[in-house]
Amino acid sequence: MGSGALMLKGPNNSSIGAILIERGRLCWAVCNACPRRLSDILVEESSSLTNAQVTEVVRECRQTGVPLGETLLSRGMVSQEALHRALLHHTSVALDHLIRADGEGWTWVAHTRQGYSPILTFSATEVLVEMTRLFEPEQSAQAAAVLQPISPPWLSSLALRRVAGGRTPIAQVRCEHVELASLSRISRQADEILSVASIAALRIAILEMSDLSFAAWGEDANQYVLLCKGKLAFNRLLAHISSLNII
Fold it and tell me: Backbone phi, then psi, for 123, in 5-degree steps?
């Protein structure tokens, strides 16, 4: 999928909402029934931004055509991190409403130029994890509590929950850019090697694929995966796993 918009239509061709895609990644979602405005979330995520300031910038952006996030960043009114959190939060809530909406069908409208060139885009992995955090906070928090203490800066980690047709990510550490297709392949391979490992009474399995090594194990109906890239990734990951006493 390139750049464009997935439009959801309602009765009489009315617009329910849309998902903007930038080169296969999500950059924005909006739903008319969504109760939360991006401006409200921005104020929550920023310690110094006020509703009055956002309202004024929104008014200016409508006149100039310059994106809101770009304007707030250029003026130092919001940090990149706060903007990222607000956009991801708003997009995830809007997607939830779009999924639940009683629409007549989706239509793909390709962007006529090269793309939207947004400041931030999101992988499906990142959005799914955020939706779990928002709508199933206890499950998300429990999985994150497992990953965070065992994920040093050189390592990425994921928690996946089994759903119909496969697994979906519910918590992650430094896996924002891992695409869903890659996750599916890793999860399938992890299931295969874990089934073999169980025969030998091993709790955890470690696999090396080119410059990527990963360790996987099951716990509380979730599958946990540690990912390590680079030279000697397998040895480094094995040493780390041994120090955790998981094997």
Answer: -80, 160
